[in-house]
């Protein structure tokens, strides 16, 4: 069992932080790895990126958006409760070297893994330019944390309530048009955002890494659920990724595959629980 040592609401009813005691994982985890967690015997395993880890305390911190059955149940747990499974580190860690100038683009909850990624990139001597995007200022997360690990930070909101009005790609386009020499782009967020970032950088030959979020079942390369088309090859998101060359990814195929279980997920969220006793006033 994995004890929850801290729980914090970042955005009421939408986004929460959870620090979990998992010393074996904390010792080995690196930027870009992810974990799979399961709340109880009856639950499903879900993948989560790493927001932070503390090797001395033996803890790993995740941040999750409440969207369906399992994340709703997760949001009902309290400090002192435990998770049945917390597996990791999974996936390949993000390539960290001195590249030069790296633009890190986080959309929505995709901002989470940039905390360790930007920190390590800066430590390795890169100039880190971060662009964070959200629908509006109330949904913007981790501005302070990512800002601390960046040389420059830009914000874009769809409705213009914070930073530039528009998309993260508008900010990236301006940097390119202004002649900023960009050696690498890392984009993590909605699939459509990663697709457009990759399309934008391709003509300029800017190496672009995206972190993909296919539906995962086991997270260890056994079930084939997270199959992706990368160039002409089939890859598994959980063991070959989650980071891939954005210029080679078939994003349309990923979008189609991720929508396969929409009906079942809706059913599970509405009728299969997905809300714990506390929300039903029974706790
Ligand atoms: C490598 C990886 C890292 C991730 N890191 C984070 C993270 O740090 N924080 C976070 O909040 N979420 C993260 N996710 C997404 C998270 O795993 C899903 O939100 C979660 O599985 C949803 O479970 P649920 O039962 O609450 O919702 P479900 O009822 O299963 O799904 C609800 C909705 O979420 C969508 N969804 C389901 N699975 C995924 C998925 N794997 N990726 C994207 N959308 C999905 C479905 O299309 C559906 O519409 C990550 C996914 C992957 C693959
Ligand atoms: S999640 Fe099963 S093979 Fe990747």
Structural commentary:
- It is globular and about 55 Å long.
- A hairpin with a 7-residue loop joins strand 3 and strand 4.
- The mean pLDDT is 93.
- It is an alpha/beta fold and 283 residues long.
- Helix 5 (168-177) packs parallel to helix 6.
- It has two domains: 2-92, Translation factors (Elongation Factor Tu (Ef-tu), domain 3, Beta Barrel); 93-211, 3-Layer(aba) Sandwich (Rossmann fold).
- The protein has nine helices and 17 strands.
- It has a seven-stranded mixed sheet, with helices on both faces. The protein has a five-stranded antiparallel sheet with strand order 5-6-2-1-7.
- The protein has helices at 23-28, 69-74, 114-123, 143-148, 168-177, 191-201, 237-240, 251-258, 262-271, and strands spanning 2-11, 15-21, 34-38, 46-49, 52-54, 59-65, 82-83, 85-90, 101-107, 127-134, 152-157, 164-165, 184-188, 208-211, 227-230, 233-236, 243-245.
- The chain starts with a strand and ends in a 12-residue tail after the last helix.
- Flavin-adenine dinucleotide is lined by residues 34, 46-49, 62-65, 67-71, 109, 112, 213-216, 242, 258, 262, 265, 268-269.
Compact summary:
This protein is of the alpha/beta class and 283 residues long.
Q: Which ions and ligands are bound to the chains? A: flavin-adenine dinucleotide, FE2/S2 (inorganic) cluster
CATH 2nd-level architecture of the largest domain:
3-Layer(aba) Sandwich
Strand content: 25-35%
> What value does the average pLDDT take?
93
As for the CATH topology of the largest domain, it is Rossmann fold
Radius of gyration, in Å, reads: 18 Å
How many domains would you count in the coordinates?
Answer: 2
- Determine the number of helices (DSSP H or I, runs of at least 4 residues): 9
The level of helicity is 25-40%
- Shape field: globular
Order of adjacent strands in the largest pleated sheet: 12-11-10-9-13-14-17
H/E element string? EEHEEEEHEEEHEHEEHEHEEEHEHH
- Show unreliable segments: none
């Amino acid at each position: 069992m994995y004890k929850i040592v801290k729980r914090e609401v970042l955005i009421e009813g939408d986004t929460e932080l959870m620090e979990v005691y998992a010393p074996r994982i904390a010792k080995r985890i690196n930027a870009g790895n992810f974990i799979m967690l399961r709340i109880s015997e009856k639950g499903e395993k879900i993948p989560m990126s790493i927001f932070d880890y503390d090797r001395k305390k033996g803890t790993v911190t995740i941040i999750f958006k409440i969207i369906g059955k399992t994340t709703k149940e997760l949001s009902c747990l309290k400090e002192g409760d435990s998770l049945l499974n917390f597996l990791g580190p999974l996936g390949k860690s993000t390539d960290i070297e001195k590249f030069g100038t790296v633009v890190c683009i986080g959309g929505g909850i995709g901002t989470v893994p940039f905390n360790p990624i930007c920190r390590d990139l800066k430590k390795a001597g890169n100039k880190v330019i971060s662009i964070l995007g959200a629908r509006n200022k109330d949904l913007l997360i981790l501005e302070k944390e990512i800002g601390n690990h960046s040389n420059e930070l830009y914000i874009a909101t769809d409705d213009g309530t914070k930073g530039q009005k528009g998309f993260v790609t508008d900010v990236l386009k301006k940097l390119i048009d202004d002649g900023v020499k960009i050696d690498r782009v890392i984009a993590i967020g909605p699939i459509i955002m990663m697709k457009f970032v990759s399309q934008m950088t391709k003509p300029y030959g800017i190496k672009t890494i995206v972190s993909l979020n296919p539906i995962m079942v086991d997270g260890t390369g056994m079930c084939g659920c997270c199959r992706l088309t990368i160039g002409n090859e089939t890859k598994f998101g959980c063991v070959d990724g989650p980071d891939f060359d954005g210029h080679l990814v078939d994003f349309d195929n990923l979008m189609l595959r991720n929508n396969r279980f929409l009906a079942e997920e809706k059913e599970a969220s509405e009728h299969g629980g997905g809300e714990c006793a506390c929300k039903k006033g029974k706790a």
